Amino acid sequence: MDWLGTGIDSPLVVSRAVHFAATAMTAGALIFRAVVAEPALWSEEAAVFVRTQNLCVASLGLAVAAASGVCWFLLQAAAMAGLSLKEAIADNALLVVMNETQFGFVSELRLALAITLAGCLTYDRYTSSRWLALASALGLIATIAGTGHAVSGVGEAGFMHLTADVLHLIAAAAWPGGLVSLALLLATARHHKDLAWASAAKDITRRFSTLGIVGVGVIFATGVVNTWMLVGSMQALIGTDYGRLLGLKISLFATMLAIAAANRFFVTPRLDLRPEDAPRLVAFRQLTRNSMIEIALGMAIFGIVGLLGTLHPAIHISP
User: What does the mean pLDDT of the chain come to?
Assistant: First the structure.
């Protein structure tokens, strides 16, 4: 593969990758708060702190997602029109793409979801706003499926592919996307010397691990469907650039899974020790460090996804 050649639109790949990662982080923060953190917190003070922390993560993620989303649309619209960005703007090609294409329709829908989510985050103190924010974030990540290869299918196979893609994206937001919130909470708990924070951190880590198990199952099952639809054979998986990139993505995912298993079965149990015990502090450092490594691997995966979406699926290419 000519990684730096003219066949790869680097700005488009980067904007897609950043947008996917930021959208996943936004949805992941809200999923983390609703499903993992809030049920495990023991005091109103801690709940307010974690809620504020997650609100900051979600807001930052949404801001980056909005900026990268605009860049993605502009670059994609110009590519679809076969023009430079300057020419596409001058020739009103952007309006044509917005009003007359599937990508444009989905972009309009996602813009509405982003605006709704921004409003909900502004009024986050209300319970109804928090639940609507979660629903909007899930919609924002799920509708990415409407911009990819899954929309090219027809009939039952096409519907199955699109459904698998939606579930794949939501699961990716719940686990890799939620890691930023987990790492921040662990870093906070590490600097508290009481058992209450240690107990909450252990409970939250286990809850996140359980969520991760569900997410891994969904990612694996939907990944099999997507691979079957887009690659089709082992020969295409190992004999095409698309297939080899997908294989690299799977390898990175397996590495993330191994680190998550080590966290659950070897590191988290050490949080039961007394606050003054050195092994407990070491466990906090290991969990935080491992979460950061997982985040880095997740970012690499989003980068690969950003590139894969600009390539022809391996099933259409002769190895």
Answer: 86
**In degrees, to the nearest 5, what angle opens at C-alpha 312 toward C-alphas 152 and 23?**
70
Residues spanned by the domain of 135: 10-316
Residues 6+ apart with CB under 8 A from 156: none
Residue 127 lies in a domain: yes
Query: What's the CA gap between 86 and 91, in Å, rounded?
Result: 9
R_g over Cα of the chain: 21
- Looking at the 3D structure of the chain, how many domains does it have? 1
| pLDDT of 1 strictly over 50 | no
Locate 194 and state its tokens. 């009481």
Domain membership flag for residue 274: yes
CB distance 110 to 140 below 8 Å: yes
Reduced to 3 states (helix: H, G, I; strand: E, B; else coil), residue 283 is: helix
Query: 118 and 136 in contact (C-beta within 8 Å)?
Result: no
Residue with tokens 């829908």: 109
Q: In which element (H, E) is residue 220 found?
A: helix 195-230
Taking the C-alpha atoms of residue 303 and residue 319, their distance in angstroms, rounded to an integer, is 24
Residue 19 lies in a domain: yes
Backbone phi, then psi, for 132, in 5-degree steps?
Answer: -70, -35
**Could you tell me if 79 and 128 are in contact, meaning their C-beta atoms sit under 8 angstroms apart?**
no
Q: Flag whether 5 is in a domain.
A: no
Contact 7, 57 (CB under 8 A): no
Cβ–Cβ under 8 Å, residues 4 and 21: no
Residue environment code for 124-150, b if the CB has 16+ CB neighbours within 10 A, otherwise e:
beeeeebebbbebbbbbbbbbbbbbbb
Amino acid type, 160: M
pLDDT digits (tens, 9 = 90+) for 198-220: 777 778 888 888 898 898 899 99
